[in-house]
Amino acid sequence: MRTQFLQVGLIAAMGLLTACGSSPRAPQQQIVGQIPAGSPFAKVQPGMSMKQVHDLIGQPTDSYNNMTGKMFIPFYFGSDAMRMEELYKGQGRLTYTGVGAGGANFNVYQITYDPSEDGYNNR
């Protein structure tokens, strides 16, 4: 009886370790809208760091951040625990992802071109 209990416990532990050891998938990067060649957003590419973006096109009009559901998953070591959204008046929005176990390292996740963007967080 004790041997069976140990075998079941060993199998369960191996299953947990296998699940924890799987690497998290990176979020799908995307561009929304047709960005004109002359737009500052045309210089921005998914995967760029926030510092690179600010050096290229300047500071945003407004910004805000929010946690994703992954923030509450124990032992989640991916980089999609938080999102940061920067709003640029007359251009659109840049969404970053990148807070995880390694700290904050925001990279462009989504580029949304919208010339009617007022640049302020009205949510």
UniProtKB/TrEMBL annotation:
Domain of life: Bacteria
Protein name listed in UniProt: Lipoprotein SmpA/OmlA domain-containing protein
Organism (species): Pseudomonas solani
